[in-house]
Amino acid sequence: MTGLLLPAAAQVQPPDTAVYFATQIHSIEDIKQLSEAQWQPAQQPLTPGFRPGSIWLRLQRQPGDAATYWLWLRRGALSEVCLYSQISDVLQGDCQPQSLTAEPSFVLTPEASVYYVAIPAHGMFLLPWQVLDTPNFEHQLFWTHLLDFAMLGALLTVILFNLLLFIRLKDKAYLYFVGYLLAMAAYWFGCFLGYCRFVEPEWRQHLSQGAELLLVLGFILAIRAYLHFLKMQKSELGLSFTLLRALEMALGATAVLSLWSSQPFVWMSLYTLLFLLCLCFMWILSMAWLQGKPLAGLFSWAWLLILVGVTLTLGINSSALPSVDGVFRLSGLIFVSAYLLISQALSEHILDLRKEREALLQAQTKNLEARVAERTQELEQALQQLEASNRFKNRLFSIVAHDLRSPLANLSSLLALVGDGTLNAAESKQMMQRLQNQTQSLLRSLDNLLHWSQDQISGQAPRKQVLALDDILTEIYQLYLPVAQQKGVALQKLSAKHLSSLGEPDQIRLIIRNLVNNAIKFTPGGKSVTLSATQSAEGIAISVQDQGIGMNTGQLQRLLDRDSYQVRAGTEGEKGLGLGLELCQNYAHYNGGDLLVNSQPGQGTTFILRLPPSRQTADPA
């Protein structure tokens, strides 16, 4: 047997003894009538290009060769392979596949000198074939099958991994990629390597005829996956998106048409559209890479290699390139390199997703920490407000229970004495004067208590206006002059004409009233209290100066401590609530001013209320 590759004597014999003829004729009688010029040399593997009909392979023995050989067709997806043997002028044949569960193989007995094999082309045709000198060739392919199944196992692992990623991440890109891998697995292992021989003959024929449809479906799903990986939208692609969709639709329609027609122009159109689709997607990837998408660079190189591989396949099947072993090895190496680049890009995509997740977790952690800190601050503020409210409540109860109850009890006792009728006229007059003083003191205490309570609860900003200070000082002077005269204290007021300030009228009046009342309270008879107002560089200064008993350093510190609560009796036992000075400090602060005090024991005390001037204040004379 010559013109064949034998495993034992791996040498190339003259090729004219193994020839093929591509035609739509299915009759062996017509094939026998062909001239020698119509037969072409059958290379290894056999690649006659796009054919709509069948391929006839003719094998001829050399004279004197009596060995038994086996024809091995490594494309296991083939169906209805027919073998005819010619003994002298007698032709015998079998129109059924001789092997459905193993590699299709046929015994070439020494009785026949010429063999004819009819093989359906199904459009694009690629047939690896060999003639072996031993029937036990299956064990020679152990490592080949092992490698094939290892590749299949790796591919199934990648499919399962991407399916799990889709379930976890809910990213359709991984679902598209799973569809692409399934289509490629069915095409490569089922159609190209021939492992579909293990399925039923009917399904095997459908799979063989739909091989190119699987290829097209895989390419379209791959493009969908990569566009999702790159997060490229229709608005970014522009006209390229329209062209890409048009090519996909045309490619899909041509692939479906190939199921009903095996004409060469259908297959040429199919692979031409596939070539244009690769070019279009290469252009899209280049634009994405220029826009700063790092994954697009790896995808671009991968699709450049795929484009070269498609070009080689197109050239081989159109007979533009020789179907030699080196070209097939180069094509396989190119596709493997492309898939390695795609795997690298997908691994980087997963790393990017992990970085995005870590960044999101860090942002969420910072946001949570900020919210916790904000909530903690709110709780601390609420706690402070609650503590202040408790202090206010306790102080209010203390004032009501002690500082207001005692004056009311004294007032009730005085009224009882007057009501008994045991007092003479002079004593009754004196008692009525004491009642009047007690009532006025109690009213002032209640007035301070009301203002203090309102200040603790509302905290509203004062409504400031221009104040004529001389009018306010005169009003307060006239109010407290009878009280001072009754105690024997000389109350004086210096002129404050042409002086004005900004402030809330009622709050400023309460400050000055409390300062004057305290000055009279702690000044013994025969001494004086002076009320005045001046203008300086710091603003308006309202002074209440007395010649009273004064305070030492400790008393002065406790007086200025807002958290300290103390009540001192006056020189004649006058009582108060201890709220007046706190109100004065608060109201001075609300009106943009300050309250200063200077005191020496036995020499008196001076309180100075500083307020911001108004624009209407005249320059001091």
Give a description of the structure.
With 621 residues, this protein is α+β, with helices and mostly antiparallel strands. It folds into 3 domains: 15-137, Immunoglobulin-like (Sandwich); 141-349; 461-611, 2-Layer Sandwich (Heat Shock Protein 90), CATH 3.30.565. It is 55% helix and 16% strand. The protein is built from 15 helices and 18 strands. It has helices at 28-32, 142-169, 172-192, 201-209, 211-229, 234-237, 239-257, 264-290, 294-317, 325-420, 425-457, 469-487, 505-521, 553-560, 580-590; strands spanning 18-23, 40-41, 46-51, 54-60, 69-73, 82-87, 90-94, 105-108, 114-120, 123-127, 129-132, 465-468, 490-493, 500-503, 528-536, 539-546, 594-600, 604-611. A 6-stranded antiparallel sheet has the order 2-1-4-9-6-7, with no helix packed on it. Strands 13-15-16-18-17 form a 5-stranded mixed sheet, with helices on one face. Strands 8-5-11 form a 3-stranded antiparallel sheet, with no helix packed on it. Helix 5 (211-229) runs antiparallel to helix 7. The N and C termini lie far apart (138 Å).
In helices, the fraction of residues equals 40-55%
Mean pLDDT: 73
Query: Numbering strands along the chain, what is their spatial order in the largest sheet?
Result: 2-1-4-9-6-7
Q: What is the CA-based Rg, rounded?
A: 55 Å
Biggest beta sheet attributes: 6 strands, antiparallel
In percent, how much strand structure appears in the residues? 15-25%
Number of strands: 18
| Computed structural class | alpha+beta
How would you sum up the global shape? rod-shaped
Distance between the termini: 138 Å
